[in-house]
Amino acid sequence: MEQKTIKILELFGGIGAPRKALINLGVNHKSIDYVEIQENRVRAYNALYDHKHKPQSVVGWNLCPDILVHGSPCQDNSRAQYSSNMKPELKKRGASAGSGTRSSLMHETIKIIRGMGEWKPKVVVWENVVGVLDKKTIPAFNHYLNEMTELGYQNSFEVLDARDFGLPQKRDRVFCVSTLEGCFDFSKMRRRKMKSIDHFLEKNVTGEQYKIAVPSMLNKIEEFNPVKKTDTYKRRLNVIEDYCWTITERQDRCPNAGIIRHKDEPAYRYLTEREVWRLMGFDDEDFDSVLKRFPSKEGKRNATLYALAGNSIAVPILESMFEQLIFGQQGNRTYFEEMNGQLKLAY
Questions:
Q1: Which of 69, 256, 314, 335 suits a disulfide with 343, CB 3.0-4.6 Å?
Q2: Other Cβ atoms closer than 10 A to 229
Q3: Is residue 317's pLDDT more than 70?
Q4: What's the half-sphere exposure (Cβ side, CA atoms, 13 Å) at 262?
């Protein structure tokens, strides 16, 4: 039987990690639209998937997919951002719907689903930082869950670490899967043995731009300048051994995803742009396609390429999630079309 086409909608789409996961799984799919307001991310997405999208907002948007994936901006949910930048009145009530924060954009997804009428996505996947579960920020997340329940969804959420899905990156993120039929079981997702970090690192990185030479950064390297027991200042740079830490928008700050110790000399370097893309689950062909759109300047690190990777979702986690949602335990790759034209998924 011919495989049907699963329709997905990507809101706050970034560089298209959901699309990449479906491609890796060999799923016949169609991205009915991609909504992203950041121009650099749109240009990168177009380079990866040969599209001509333009930046657009999720506000007031409407279409009918089988699976909707949204990863609303996470800065206002991060612990560091919450403690330093949020206004006192917003701290008091949490970054709830209508608060005017970037994270309140997650509730635009509710409006979009509500505007679809009888056709609702069978599955809605939402990803964000673990800070959404903190006492002071969880009201916004609870509001989202309640709204999804009112729309007829059953919610299931869990903190997933990229290391459990093959990537040597300690990246903890909250994933919420909302389904119209049954409840998604995270325990059935296929875990993978973490690969060696050597598999992701480039050989013989010699560019001066990657070498850590600034004294203020050298002094923060844990093994280069160990913290004294009486020192309460804990923002340090750690050398990568078996895995790196969470990849974010920038690697030239402290703390970061970790640094590499040169084997042949007492020196340290930053992760390269290609390495952070690999550590997010993208391959070199993807990286090279985007590099053509955002070429690096001679002797300079490419801040755009770092940011694009750091704002994405770890692809292998989405692969495992989609594998369970679409194929189930039996691995059935035949989708059945229901009376309303939607596809019946396996979960």
A1: 335
A2: 6
A3: yes
A4: 15
